[in-house]
Amino acid sequence: MPMNMTENEITLAIIKAVQEGKKKSFRDIIDELQPYDMYQQYQAIPSKHKYKFLYYLSIEQLTELMEELELDDKLDVLHRLGIERSTKVLDLMENDELASFLSDLEPEKIEELLSEMKPKESQMVQDLMNYPPETAGRIMNNRFVWIKKHYTIGEAVEKLKEFAELAEYLNYLYVIDEDKKLVGVVSYRDLLLADNSQKIEDVMYGRVVKVDVYEDQEEAAKLISRYDFVSLPVIKEDGTLAGIITVDDIIDVVIQEANEDIEMLSASGKAIDFNTKPWVAAYRRLPWLIILLFVGLVSGGIISGFEETLDAAVALAFFMPMIAGMTGNTGTQSLAVVVRGLVSEDLTLKQAGKLIFREMWVGIFIGITCGILISIIAFFWQGNIVLGMVVGVSLLLTLIIGTLAGTIIPLILYKLNVDPAIASGPLITTINDILSLLIFFGIATAFLSQIV
Amino acid sequence: MPMNMTENEITLAIIKAVQEGKKKSFRDIIDELQPYDMYQQYQAIPSKHKYKFLYYLSIEQLTELMEELELDDKLDVLHRLGIERSTKVLDLMENDELASFLSDLEPEKIEELLSEMKPKESQMVQDLMNYPPETAGRIMNNRFVWIKKHYTIGEAVEKLKEFAELAEYLNYLYVIDEDKKLVGVVSYRDLLLADNSQKIEDVMYGRVVKVDVYEDQEEAAKLISRYDFVSLPVIKEDGTLAGIITVDDIIDVVIQEANEDIEMLSASGKAIDFNTKPWVAAYRRLPWLIILLFVGLVSGGIISGFEETLDAAVALAFFMPMIAGMTGNTGTQSLAVVVRGLVSEDLTLKQAGKLIFREMWVGIFIGITCGILISIIAFFWQGNIVLGMVVGVSLLLTLIIGTLAGTIIPLILYKLNVDPAIASGPLITTINDILSLLIFFGIATAFLSQIV
């Protein structure tokens, strides 16, 4: 038993067992490993031993390994397993895992893999894949125990024992009526504490928190984190129970949604991680950068429109990066607050109005503080009180407008159901750049005679 | 039963029951509500009914309500309950919830509340509060069932039934030896499928994934999301079992850590949500803005250092915002990739080297593409091929340097264990601003005779 062995020692023991053809020692080691650790070991051993590693694993262990692997490695393992074993593994894989794996493949490959599977398993996966990405239906699974409402507690416990292998968590049993509609939920705790002859419908909890198959996965995440559930039932339009979403999938959703928010704030493009190839990463980041390059030229165009002002008072150029940068910063701050607030709060019209009003006041406070500060600095640096006033007033105005732009633009996009990635951080920054230059040079031009 | 009532109907029914003094109808409604929904109802009813609402709740329900409330409302409820009931509620509250509530209070208030509680409960909460914030010890709780390794399966099931009320999840039982050291874990599934007379130590799983009390809460989150557990045991230095961390707390950790990353990228300051008062929000965002204001003035200083160049070729000013903006954007993109990558990947030196190398290539690809593009645009706009070349080459260099700065700075800070908030997005943007202006004006000055 590898209880007290380090990971490296386990790797060596596995290689030894594989080399010497000792299947039993190999299994003894693997049996003690969690799926993630088995996956780490599979990654760690030299390539030439991988074939035998797979050969020695049971179908259940292969399935666990498959669920941990990256896309390319999944395909590689299926290929190495051959058609018979790989089909058994696909049949055993969790439906939601399989659906998510298949949806990354070419249509022909999907069909090829599905055609070998058991019709029932294959049909269930296809059902899942028919729901749009990032909906509750797409991430649900069928590893739960349901009972009928007329069961007694005793009957329910029997069924629970029978399906213990299948159910992911044993915390709740979902109760359905004759039409398979979800009508209640019973916790395992309730079963333990109730009398064996009592009816389920008398002890069940009838006000079930549930989610529709077509609901956004973020909504499911919000409910699970709000109610501290470990699973959430998913229902079809007719109220029948379609599946459950489990908390481990929700953690992945929460991380994924946070990453999407950050990709949006930084325009870094979808799903770049440490292992993405440089050209792929560059290709994903470029579209935004090129758009922003053109938008940046608009700023340049504005400055060129004020060429005479700039020619007359080159000192204005010294304050340009500060004003543009500050406006961009406040805009991004407001944007971040709005985007992350929506993760846990529902957005009502009242809430939105309150938020805009709050951010306006934040802009005013920040603007007054920074405006006074920069007026004093500009006056001492350039020795011109009007220049100081122009810079200060410009900063006050641009900070208020920048804060409001960073609040209102994402709120409008959210309400219009437009992909909020459009309101990415750099775009807000660039819009605020343009607004700030217009305000700054506009005011400076009006007072030009007093500045030079 | 309010099974099919809307939230508004429930609110009206609750108000009616309270007004007419019908405690039984009130309880019937509340019994069907989840803690979060009860909290929503408490928020929804008019203030004058809140006293009676609290009066009608059982101690258990009050405890559930308390755990949902915001800080100010918690204090308000404790005040309304009076010393006797409020102490009962505090005794019943989950230790981690109570520790997190108390740590937001003044020391005198903490002492006052703790002194009334049962010595045992009070001691446990104080133990938790002794662990530093954001460690595993701080977020663990004691709602788990432990068994000794020499128990039989039958004895373990008995103990499980006995403590079913107390345990949060019934998925795993933790196994300890004579010295209270954690030596194994048994899933409830294993219990159901094993023979009643078997010994626990023969069926338990010995290679327990666990976390140290002083470990960062992020590490606990990484383990739970990696292994798909619903709870994770926490051990003290001597190997004894101190508590468990449950998945519902980990979801909060994941959201909190994502928010911290975003606060860092946007410098929006800690814990600003939709309900923060405007002056508080402004106060939290200001420190960074003022620092960035001064850093922005450094950019201005650089430009003023190149005043002669700028005077001779005002057209250079037109490209300034674009070059500075683009460099800031690539830096933020790299920063975002590094920061979020660390959420799920462990950072080895090899991994860091690989990442820097990858980002360098991304910078080169992006730099060449955008450099060529802007050279052509600049040539056609200003009709000067040397100006076009100067702008293009500057952009190529600044994009490579910007990408590297956005990668290396956060990696160094992470390795030095410096609060990564220092590498906030606006700071990277501003550093990149300065670098890009130096490069741009440096090259432009060298070729000045050919530009004008």
TrEMBL record, chains A, B:
TM regions (residue ranges): 286-306, 312-339, 360-381, 387-413
Cell location: Cell membrane; Membrane
A cellular component annotation (GO) from this entry: plasma membrane
Major localization class: membrane
A GO term for molecular function: metal ion binding
Keyword Zinc: no
Residues of the CBS domain: 140-203, 204-262
Pfam families linked to this entry: CBS, MgtE, MgtE_N
InterPro entries per the UniProt record, alphabetical: CBS_dom (IPR000644), CBS_dom_sf (IPR046342), Mg_transptr_MgtE_intracell_dom (IPR006668), MgtE_N_sf (IPR038076), MgtE_transporter (IPR006669), SLC41_membr_dom (IPR006667), SLC41_membr_dom_sf (IPR036739)
Annotated keywords: CBS domain, Cell membrane, Magnesium, Membrane, Metal-binding, Transmembrane, Transmembrane helix, Transport
Membrane topology: Multi-pass membrane protein
Main function: Acts as a magnesium transporter.
Family, as annotated: Belongs to the SLC41A transporter family.
Oligomeric and partner information: Homodimer.
NCBIfam families: mgtE
Name assigned to this protein: Magnesium transporter MgtE
Organism listed in the record: Alkalicoccus daliensis
